[in-house]
Amino acid sequence: MSTDSPAGLPVDNPSKSYWLSEPSEMLLGHRTTKDLPQTADVLIIGSGITGALAAHFVKEKAPNLNVTMLEAREACCGATGRNGGHCQPGYYSLPPHIAAFEHRTYSYLKAFVESQSIPCDWRTTTGVHGYYSAKLFATTKKTIEKIQEENPDIGTNITVVTKEDGESSLCVRQDESGGLTLKALRVGAAEGAVVQRNAASLWPYKLVAFVLERLLVAGGFNLQTNSPVTGLERVAMPPGLSSSHTNDKAESGGWTAHTPRGDISARHVLLATNAYTSHLLPQLADIIVPVRGQVSSLKPPAKGPLDIGHTFYFVSDLDDRRDDYLVQRPPPGAELVYGGGRIRAEGHGLGVWDDSTVDERVAKYLGGELSGLMDLSTREQGNAQGKQKQDVEPTFEWSGIMGFSRDGWPWVGSVPGSAGGGDGLWLCAGYSGSGMPNAALCAKAVVDMMIPGHEDGEMDLPCEYLFTEERLERARACETVAEADRRGAFI
What we know:
The protein has helices spanning 49-61, 96-116, 134-150, 152-155, 204-218, 277-280, 360-368, 370-373, 439-450, 469-476, 481-486; strands at 39-45, 67-70, 86-87, 123-131, 158-162, 192-201, 221-224, 231-236, 253-259, 262-271, 288-298, 311-316, 322-328, 336-339, 394-405, 411-414, 425-429. By secondary structure, it is α/β, with parallel strands linked by helices. Helix 1 (49-61) packs parallel to helix 5 (204-218) and helix 1 (49-61) packs across helix 9 (439-450). It is globular, with a radius of gyration of 22 Å.
């Protein structure tokens, strides 16, 4: 598929994700009202983590506003319900101020889950990043040394483990000698590893389902599933809609969303549509490009209990390009949720917005590669690293659609006219595969723009994320998403 053509609507027969195997009884097929409402104060299109948290922040800030959410399929059936099930800040792969923003987002989600006792299997752990390229590891090590020297608040969360080093101050699982080693981290075949604090695995669908269910119970929130939006139109302000607590620009302005079930008009419309954004804003087809990724849940190959102890990334350079990630589910199933292998997909999955199928080459890779990257034995069995690879049996294989941003950063804020927008149309999308450590506070930032209030102080959002005309012009002067992908920008 073309990387500069608008995305289509989400398909109605998506592949079956592990995370969607236990749907919420309240949310499945949910329509708060039999008919589509004709008006709303705030209309949110998309029901993933961005849309759900945005609705949460709107009702938290302005409880009297009427909020309607439209979802093309079932609730949280898009990227949030199809990701790898982990949340981890990019401490050393990002500029320090953006790494700090991802840290704050991670910390917000962790505190939110804990304070609300959300049953989403949140497990705080450490992240192990195994490097299978000596050249890339050496470069990464220098980057980390600079961060630790110049930004110790970020650097304190990172520890480098080499083939020679066995000592570390970071408290993670150790081998029999008491030192932190690649073998102890189960990545003995790696050239080196980076271990970072503040990683987590979770059931992302259950987090979003909890937020949506609580909004429905509280009232003033209308969820309409299986209601795809086919177009947007700027119109006069719908009569009777509240303007209190909202941005007062262009008081006469509003938007109408067209659906097969009828139209709904609102003063404010938020597109929490990520990879599918260009379906409604074709002007952004070259700015946020849909990219299909793939994940498998795998039965552990070892006999007896297996606890891998951390979340994992497996990284290599362009000679043997790898951008894989791994978490483990709790017992008794203890499935290994393993994603990546996109480089093996036809066209690297670029421009693909259809998540109904999986790429067989990627499926084969995910089923046969893992045991060659890490030790999957139980400790009682000893270290199996170096033995012949063994395939692991998949229980689910699914695809999901990411939204890759042309300049690498999410797009958050008011949509300018040149992009098909205007006052009252908002966007929060384009996470380039890193939605979990970004979406929550991006959603809060866009709500703070939509419903300004002096009590909030300065908005918490990196300046790179803000959607402006000037940024749009700069992005179009950048390399395309396809060109950036060829040089490995999205590893």
